[in-house]
Amino acid sequence: MADPAVASAGSLSAGGRGSGGKAATSPAENYHLARRRTLQVVVSALLTECGFESAEKAAVETLT
């Protein structure tokens, strides 16, 4: 099963590279973070389907 921190599909606009827990300031930045989070969830799901039991956040970040 994938890492819950990576695989959970909670708030798509929360998180992302270098956000440091701060909310995005512009709609464009929110959109970018949401798309990035969606991509991370999809990559994590594909890794799980391929037989990996978990995915480190850094490894998924490298693939995205």
Task: Walk me through the structure.
Keywords: Nucleus, Transcription, Transcription regulation. InterPro entries: BTP (IPR006565), Histone-fold (IPR009072). Pfam families: Bromo_TP. It is elongated and about 40 Å long. Helices cover about 55% and strands about 0% of the residues. The protein has 3 helices and no strands. It has about 60 residues and is an all-alpha fold. The chain has one domain.
Rg, Å, rounded: 12 Å
Terminal Cα span? 19 Å
In total, how many beta strands?
Answer: 0
Overall morphology: elongated
Please render the helix and strand layout as text.
Blueprint: H1 4-7, H2 27-49, H3 57-63
List keywords for this structure.
mainly alpha; BTP; nucleus; protein heterodimerization activity; Histone-fold
In short:
With 64 residues, this protein is mostly helical.
